[in-house]
Amino acid sequence: REPGRERRERRERGAAGQPDSSVPPSGVSCSGCGAELQCCDGAAPGFVPAEKYQSLSEGPAGAAGLRGAVCQRCWLLAHYGRALRLQLPPEQHRLVVSAALRRPPRHGRGPLLLYLLDVLELPDPVLPQLPGLLGPDVPAAGLLVVGNKVDLLPADSPGHLGRLRQRVAAACAQAGLRGAPLVDVRLVSAKTGFGLEGLVSRLQRSWKCAGDVYLLGATNSGKSTLFNTLLRSDYCKSRAPDAIDRATVSPWPGTTLNLLKFPIINPTCDRIFRRQERLKEEATKTEDQLSSEERKYLNHLKKQGYLVGEVGRTFQRQKSSPVVDFDPDMLSYSIDEDPRHSPRKHEEREEFTHNEVKDARWCFDTPGIVKENCVLNLLTEKEVKLVLPTCAIIPRTFILKPGMVLFLAALGRVDYLQGEKPAWFSVVASNLLPVHIATLSNADAIYKKHAGQELLKVPMGGEERMKEFPPLVPQDITLEGIGTTEAVADIKLSSAGWVAVTAHAEEKLLLRAYTPKGTALVVREPPLLPYISTIRGARIAGTAAYRTKKPPSLVENLKTTGRK
């Protein structure tokens, strides 16, 4: 074994094991990302170190011995949250998606496109590209748009979900997606399960099993998480979870590199009836009637998001083996062990028979379409983890006078230049990103001194990191207030988050907002959560900040009780 320091250095380089250019690709897909497993190029998708590749492919099965393995990239993502820098240009992502959609229609009908967008990213930067990606020759039979990550946003007023749905529908119309192809707009949380039973019912009721389904969306929209959840739902053939591995889920953009798929169950009248009976029975339960294990998991989800749901299975196999998820010895290489001496584990893997899949309709997960002009493209893996929210966002509200400045880490800045009265600035961003209030007179000095340091936190790495990081560039914004409880607009600082601005009625504000050069700054009118400034506690004496307040979580499909 290597000394600890050398092992850590190998990890930091993101590589373990050597390639062997003499070995041809396997023809077997990685069960995490769908890329073809190979050991000849360490910078290409699907790479497995040569020694591990050979140990898995030796024996009578040959390359088939790799079935169920994951590539080095997926293994690092699953175990360490680390992403290898792959030589995969954005055009290649689009090429794979576009080529898949242009396949000849199967079963005499074009596919249903299930487009997933991150509601935090509205207006979705990829949605306007969708008509061009499809083109006039793509025989799509329908489009269902799903707004994901609604669990991360607090309810700023009654009916906030209806308003969010309207915002998603408006984004579709603005992108030229309306009329017959647009089947529906839904809101879900792929992570907590909120809205997913409704989505499955909608798919089974309207689409039935008429054709294939393609999951589309930008990188990091949650497609792989949704794919994994649907795989364990009534939308998937009951035996499929035992035969298909789950997609790698990671915050690093562009996780899914090729096409993963599972077979869709045929929603016969009997199956739909049995499913509805299960949902009715579950809706009569209260939290107190759940098992201790179910309550423990539910409380875990409540900490993760404001909206929680349960995704169950109506059709269970009598005998089921658990899915082995990224076992370091069987599915890939162990980063701490010498792969040549790793014990081989033989396990009988489930396989579909020809009759089971010959007429199957499939749900495909496609590569994420890379967002251009996005701040995430400038960040390291550690920085991405801090910037992307993974649990319920707690809004932070500040009252600023003209001449004051708000920093969101070192990724965004909003200056209040002119106005007659104080205004409220509510930050909606990852709870891990710091917010710092300064004055115009010392803001530049603070940025110069603390960018790359602990005070502003992201980017991290000190002066050396900031030398390569793009400078902040300004954009002047003029707003007119509509009241002290309703925001007039959101200033969206690329994918780092946004600042909702609330001002007195008819009060005119001159602001100057900054984002890193090459990233998009968007003024979102109307704001996504117009009453966000009301979710706050008392003013903290001697500061511009208010105490934070976290609204309670809502559990879907459970009978309400008095417990909190």
Task: Describe the protein's architecture and organization.
Residues 269-296 form a coiled coil. GO terms for molecular function: GTP binding. Residues 1-14 have a biased composition (Basic and acidic residues). Residues 425-525 form the NOA1/YqeH-like C-terminal domain. Keywords: Coiled coil. The protein has 564 residues and is α/β, with parallel strands linked by helices. 25% of the residues lie in helices and 18% in strands. The protein has 15 helices and 18 strands. It has a six-stranded mixed β-sheet, with helices on both faces. It has a five-stranded antiparallel β-sheet with strand order 8-11-15-14-17, with no helix packed on it. It has a five-stranded antiparallel β-sheet with strand order 12-9-10-16-13. Residues 1-15 and 318-349 have low confidence and may be disordered.
Furnish the topology, listing elements before pairings.
Elements: H1 4-13, H2 50-57, H3 72-80, H4 90-101, E1 112-118, H5 130-134, E2 142-148, H6 160-174, E3 182-187, H7 196-207, E4 213-217, H8 223-231, H9 240-243, E5 260-263, H10 269-283, H11 292-304, E6 307-308, H12 354-357, E7 362-365, H13 381-387, E8 396-400, E9 404-408, E10 412-418, E11 423-428, E12 435-439, H14 440-450, H15 462-468, E13 472-480, E14 487-493, E15 498-502, E16 508-516, E17 521-524, E18 554-555
Parallel strand pairs: 1-2, 1-4, 2-3, 4-7, 6-18
Antiparallel strand pairs: 5-7, 8-11, 9-10, 9-12, 10-16, 11-15, 13-16, 14-15, 14-17
